[in-house]
Amino acid sequence: MSFALHDRQAPLKVLIVKLSSLGDVVHTMPAVMDIQAAFPNAQIDWVVERGFAPLAARCAAVHRVIPCDLRRWRKAFLKANTRAQTRAEWQAFKADLQQDAYDVILDLQGLTKSALVAWLARKAKGGKRYALANRTDGSGYERPTRWVADVAVPITPHIHAVERGRVLCAKALGYDVPAHVNYGLGQAAMQRKPLVALVHGTSRADKEWPLSHWHDLGLRLKQQGFDVALPHGNEAERLRSEAMAEMLPGAVVWPRLSLDQLTTEMAQCTGVIGVDSGLSHIAVALDLPHVQIYNFDTAWRTGPEGLTRQRSVVDCPTPSVDAVWDAWQACLHAEGSVP
Fold first, then answer.
1. How many domains does the chain have?
2. For residue 230, what are the β-bridge partners?
3. What CATH number has the domain bearing residue 130?
4. What 3-state DSSP class applies to 324?
5. Spatial distance between the Cα atoms of 313 and 319, rounded to a whole number of angstroms
6. Judgement on whether residues 197 and 293 belong to the same structural domain of the protein
7. H helices within the chain, ranges in order?
8. Rounded to the nearest 5 degrees, what angle is found at the Cα of 160, between the Cα atoms of 159 and 166?
9. 141 and 224, same domain (yes or no)
10. pTM to 2 decimal places
């Protein structure tokens, strides 16, 4: 089947395999929206780790989310007391995955675990599995993804994380990558609260920004007329949020929220300033004024690109408060949100 010649109005069943992590899931949304734009009648399903399923479901082009628990199952299967339950859950997942037969199965992750899921998925007659043919700079890649694929798609190695998925899908289905990037989460609320979320938590210590810098930045935001919100995703981040709130009178520590709830709360903020983390990438997807802070130059691969109201600030060992503040002012002026 040649999708380059496929009737763009005909029904088409597509399966996206992108399991994790949070940032990678967000970066996949534009590729999903591109497919729907090229094939308006496509049914696009998405296999993703259960914790990210509510976020994937918010993407406007997604028809059905198929949650899995591969991370948990790998550990649980090694324990005798959880092995039977794990086996039952695995069988239920396979039944859910194989409920439909797909014309196109797209492994956008490029790892052994995603290759396994793509291999288990059921192809329609004439359907094909597509996957990455090569590693790209800064991203993981494992050879089984190529072995499982019917078609391995070569991608230029030096490419932004968002563009990697968009290009793979475009090459597989035979359309041009649209100029506009659409995450499918809709525009942030027009009447937003005078609230700025400070995303200080990240999975790696070398991505953190000094507490003293957050304090200085928070004081400047208060002087500018903004309240400060402090999200957290684990106990260490909660303690850090509370420590920051003590130094910033009026700052609000959000309760522990689900990913879906966090997305809703962030959408009501004037903007977000944060380190390189999944929540910061959600701010980009929500089209909010946003500054993303990098202690080393990986912004070319995961940071906001081409938008005046969303900027990356990069410096080593860490960006200054002045640099972040100047970028924030530029984002506000571009948005027209200066108090």
1. 2
2. 253
3. 3.40.50.2000
4. helix
5. 7
6. yes
7. 22-38, 53-58, 70-76, 80-97, 112-120, 144-148, 161-173, 211-223, 235-247, 259-267, 278-285, 299-302, 321-335
8. 90
9. no
10. 0.94
Q: Are residues 51 and 200 in the same domain?
A: no
Token couple for 152: 């391995």
Q: At what angle do helices 211-223 and 321-335 cross, to 10 degrees?
A: 40
User: Residue for token digits 């797209």?
Assistant: 106
* Domain, as residue range, for 142: 12-173
Tell the residue number behind the tokens 């039944």, with chain if given.
95
Amino acid letter for position 246: E
Per-residue model confidence as pLDDT tens digits over 110-154: 999 999 999 999 999 999 999 999 999 999 999 999 999 999 999
Torsion angle of alpha carbons 181, 187, 193, 196, nearest 10°?
-20
**pLDDT per position as a tens digit, 16-26:** 999 999 999 99
Whether residue 208 is found in the same domain as residue 262:
yes
Q: Is 250 left (phi over 0), alpha (psi -120 to 50) or beta?
A: left
